[in-house]
Specification:
The protein is an alpha+beta fold and 459 residues long. It has 16 helices and 17 strands. Residues 27-447 form the Amidase domain.
Length: 459
């Protein structure tokens, strides 16, 4: 098997298995060898399913030998953030708490994972994350930090840091993460890969440990746009286990079709004031590529800062309420930084949360009005590139602020109103950086067409 196949995308890997260039078993063994070589430093995986994965790969090779088609992800190694249920494996959610509660291992996979496996994917294991998804760095207090493949002295971002770093390092072709306030977009940006936060209600979250039910999304990471689109299409569809999942299914379409000129709105104000020069330059590079044949204008969302503040309030209140019964009996097992923020959330007055919801409705109306003039909005995914591991603060606009709280400051207002976003890597900086491509609700196909245009331009 070619050594480069590990860094190829999932479509190329599945094609190589189908045409006999390699086998599912051989690709899995190469992946396991790469994990053994790199993961002791990167710390992406918390659980490996070596024997089970070998059995799945062997079954796929046997099916191919019988002339059967296991699906579009035939033999492709995938992995999931460890808050996704995996049948027979304890769900961790980045914590010690769930194990202490004596919860039995799930008997079925999370819906999103089941749909990937149903398309022929081989599940390698589960991946590191911030405890209960409450963070942007994946510096997990229990199992240690996930390190950035571009520079192992730096964070991978979070809370889905293990998922992003595994894809960037070639330790899985496609991974799944969750995004409440930026937990897919932040690590995708800092690791230099593609990540999708879909429209709220688009993909089922059933079997993914919750954080803030009114903000939670699940989505894929990938090394190519076609992989991202394939994973997204495979995971679409209704699910009675997630009441928020609408079941709406929309095809992505031909990614390479000639797209009409786009009306691009580059978000300024809140989305530019604190970004460093490299983050701003990444946005300008992407805007120049996307606006060819269309238009590009600066635009502001005056309520963005208020929306971010309101998102913080609702996050604390919903997250705190979810965890309060467990905090009463097992508070000592939490990461203190997570525990204290959850406890603070339980003490927010109802009037604060009520006002935050009013801000949410007003901001959603403001965003909807902007999309009457623009096809896509463009913003930084993160204000800076990956900070060093252990750095508690970053400098934004000359002010020292908390890294854990502020790496997602550009992502939070967008997930606050459930918009679909692709985090797109933009080459050119010393360390990876990405931008957010933002579309109106249910317009993922538009996002993928724009992402493919960027991908071609930067190749």
């Amino acid at each position: 098997m070619s050594a480069t196949l590990l860094m190829d995308d999932a479509v190329a890997q599945a094609t190589a298995i189908r045409d006999g260039t390699t086998s599912a078993a051989a690709l899995l063994e190469a992946t396991l060898d790469a994990i053994a070589a790199r993961d002791p430093v990167l710390n992406c995986y918390t659980d490996l399913r070596v024997d089970a994965a070998r059995g799945e790969a062997a079954a796929i090779d046997a099916a191919l030998a019988r002339g059967e088609d296991p699906g579009p992800l035939t033999g492709v190694p995938v992995a999931v953030k460890n808050l996704f249920d995996i049948a027979g494996l304890p769900t961790r959610a980045g914590s010690k708490v769930l194990g202490a509660l004596g919860l039995p291992p799930p008997t079925r996979d999370a819906t999103a994972l089941a749909r990937l496996r149903g398309a022929g994917a081989v599940l390698v294991g589960a991946l590191n994350m911030d405890e209960f998804a409450y963070g942007f760095s994946t510096e997990n207090a229990h199992v240690g930090p996930t390190r950035n493949p571009a520079d192992p002295q730096r964070i991978a971002g979070g809370s889905s840091g293990g998922s992003a770093a595994a894809v960037a390092a070639g330790l899985a072709a496609i991974t799944l993460g969750s995004d409440t306030n930026g937990s897919i977009r932040v690590p995708a940006s800092l690791c230099g890969i593609w990540g999708l936060k879909p429209t709220y209600g688009r993909l089922s979250r059933a079997g993914a440990w919750p954080f803030v039910a009114s903000f939670d999304h699940v989505g894929p990471f990938a090394r190519s746009v076609r992989d991202l689109a394939l994973a997204y299409e495979l995971m679409q569809g209704g699910d009675p286990r997630d009441p928020a999942c609408t079941g709406r299914v929309d095809p992505v379409g031909d990614l390479d079709a000639q797209a009409p000129g786009l009306r691009i709105g580059v978000l300024g104000g809140w989305f530019a004031d604190r970004a460093d020069g490299q983050a701003g330059a990444a946005v300008e590079r992407a805007a120049a590529m996307l606006a060819e044949g269309g238009t590009r204008h600066d635009v502001t969302l005056p309520m963005a800062e208020a929306a971010r503040s309101a998102a913080f309030c609702i996050t604390g209140a919903e997250g705190g309420a979810l965890h309060l019964p467990i905090l009463r009996t097992h508070a000592d097992l939490y990461d203190p930084a997570v525990r204290d923020r959850l406890l603070a959330g339980t003490m927010l007055p109802a009037s604060v949360v009520h006002h935050a919801q009013r801000v949410r409705r007003a901001f959603a109306a403001q965003v909807s009005a902007v999309f009457e003039e623009f096809d896509l909005l463009l913003a930084p995914a993160t204000p800076v590139s990956a900070p060093p591991i252990g750095d508690a603060t970053i400098i934004l606009d000359g002010v020292e602020v908390s890294a854990r709280a502020n790496l997602g400051l550009y992502a939070q207002p967008i997930s606050f109103v459930g918009l679909p976003v692709i985090a797109a890597p933009v080459p050119g900086a010393a360390l990876p950086l990405g931008v957010q491509l933002i579309a109106p609700p249910w317009a993922e196909a538009r996002l993928f067409a724009a992402a493919r245009r960027l991908e071609r331009a930067f190749q």
